[in-house]
Structures are given as structure tokens and as C-alpha cells.
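Entry for the shared binder. Reason: the reviewer on the internal report wants the predicted structure included alongside the sequence.
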Amino acid sequence: MDLFTLLGKRRDEDSDLPASADEVGFDAAALLAGGVPVTPSEENRECLEALRAVIDPEVGINIVDLGLVYAVACREGGIDVVLTMTTPACPLSAVIEEDVRDAIWEFVDPHAQVRVAVVFEPAWSPEMMSAYARQQLGR
């Protein structure tokens, strides 16, 4: 599946989600390819820990344990994050995206160029949550 297909699944017509790879500035599909969504490099682990500070305001659990973070890639000068929302109609998507940038800047690198892509394929499901998140939600 190419990036345009991934990003073509927009929240709604008024969404500010990028419509193409050119608008995103990185290939989210390439980060999602390969079966292991998050590379276990030290930099990526640091980014994931920073992203644990981002709490989904509707659920009260961090986006990593909720399974919303699909991929993290550290590159020279910046960090790319591919994530999803629990539903394409999430009214707080822009808030979460901004919180992702703020967390990276605060805990990893205040000068990093942070690029965030919100995708809806694969669709999020409760099975993507960590054991901790499931326990917190009584599942």
C-alpha cells in the first residue's frame, strides 16, 4: 500500500491531514513496511519513552500503550512518527499530534524537525493495546 492510499483515508473533508507524500515530507508507508513497526534502536526507544508522556485525553492512557504509535524513525536532524487514532473521527487528533511534537522536543531534542503522519490503515483495534492499557481499561 502506498503513502497516498494510507493518507487518503482522511478524517473528513475539512481535515488538515496531508493528502500526499509530498505534503507529509516522508514516506510513512516505508516505515510501516516490514512487519516490525518500531525499530528497536536506542534513539527509537528514547522517542517511544518520550511519547509515553502523550496521554489520549479521552481515554487517559498514553498513546504508546494504547497502540496508536505505528512507527518511529530517527534521522539526521529529526524524527518521523507514524500514528493512528482510535477512530478516524477523533476530535482531538490535532491536539495529540501537537503533544507528540512537544514530547519529542521536551524529552529528546528541542531542535529536532518532528514530522507526524496520521494514518488509518491498518485500522486501530483494542488488540493493539499493551497489557498495561488493557488492565487499566478493565479488559
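Summary line for the report: The radius of gyration is 14 Å.
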